[in-house]
Amino acid sequence: MGNRARLSLTFILCLLVPAGCSDDSGVPSADIGTHSGTDTGSTDSNTGFDVGSSTDSGSGVSTDGGDDTHLDTDQATESAPDSASASGSDTGGGSDTSKDGTGDTNQTDTTKDCVDEDSDGWCAEFDCDDNNENANPDQEEIPGNQVDDDCDGSTDEMTCVPVSDDETVCDGLDDDCNGWIDDVDVGGDGICDCLRIGVMGTPGVNPSANFKAWLEERGTSVTRFHNKNAPELTPADLLPFDVVIVDRLVRLYSSNEAAILKNWVTGGGGVMFMTGYTAGEPSWARPNSLMEPLGLEYEGGPLKNGPITDFASHPITKGLTSVTFLGGWAVLETNADPAAKNTVVAHLPAKGGAAGTAQERGKGRVFAWGDEWIEFDSEWTKLPEIEQLWVNILGWLGPQDSCQINVQ
Fold it and tell me: What is the C-alpha to C-alpha distance for residues 151 and 95, in angstroms, rounded to an integer?
């Protein structure tokens, strides 16, 4: 019997017997079972004819190039478990929403550089204040501190329970729930009674001056230091104070000591400089030794006089029209420091330079005034504008989150 006839007879006979039969010649039988060709690993479920063509989507498209021309309709499609393409590319839509910018939910890298200036574990994109490690979405809101601690867009949203009608105690709390901590001013003089002032150096040359006592009468606490032997300046010397007033210094200070003062200011301290006690070099060289890293200095040379009547608009100059200036120097800016903002708030007559310069640096502030005459309370207690100048200075230099009477 010819081959073609034998194939036809075999085909007919196999219709009558179970799938998988073959004749003695080894010619495969036609599989009319349910071979679908979908291979998800090692399991082969049959749902169609096998024509000897196999497509493997996990390792590329493969065509059986043999002489299998019988009725084999096996179209096996093999899929890799990770659904990756034959080329190995990953089309997963992974995206990074982790707080530190390093997480990856799939192979696709959609991360970007994380800027975290305060090293609190939160990228600037999600951190409402990247210069304050205590303000980020992980924090709890602290009532009364005027800070959005938990980065929810609201400040001090927690309910405040008043313990008094007015703020009368320097306890670090917002006792009257007006939004300000320790805004105590029992005498109503405009100077916060909770202000902690350090006066650095000796009193001015005017023997009748009693500046420390005048400040204490306004409710502040005042401590004079470095007025005798003046040991090496340390961070511990500055720690007790909100504001330091640099009076007549007894010596030059080292660059290391000046850096300590600068760091204290950057962290939130307020410092004021005065000069002009005598016409000699120590009156300007000694304060300059501390002012140098702040980018400010006194001009030195021949003394200059006022009065000062040319004021720029600034919280320190509020309500002023004329302030006495008897023998001092101009305040110079020695370098443009991007970390500081300088504002000339008062000018000497005849374009003689800056009589007063205010500086904002980090969380703190600096005010340099070119004369010491405003320290002599015995001379100006009857002149209201000098007192107003001190009210303005102490309010501007004092803590910005507490102890504020007239919010600057």
Answer: 23
Domains of the chain, start order = 111-155 (no CATH), 196-397 (3.40.50.880)
- Terminal-residue alpha carbon distance, the chain: 114
Between CA 208 and CA 206 the distance in angstroms is: 6
Give all strands (DSSP E) within 194-257, no chain letters. 196-200, 221-225, 243-246
- Residue 365 contacts residue 358 (beta carbons within 8 Å): yes
Structure tokens at 260: 């300590």
Alpha-carbon dihedral of residues 60, 63, 66, 68, nearest 10 degrees? 130
Mean pLDDT, residues 55-71 taken together: 40
- For β-strands 55-56 and 77-78, DSSP reports them as parallel
**273 DSSP 8-state letter:** E
Mean pLDDT lowest for which of 74-78, 185-189, 199-203? 74-78
Q: Rounded distance, CA 186 to CA 197, Å? A: 18
Local confidence band at 203 (pLDDT 50, 70, 90 cut-offs): confident
Amino acid found at 235: P
Q: What is the mean pLDDT of residues 248-265?
A: 97
> Minimal CA–CA distance to 368: which of 314, 294, 307, 310?
294
In which band, very low, low, confident or very high, does the pLDDT at 86 lie, cut at 50, 70 and 90? very low
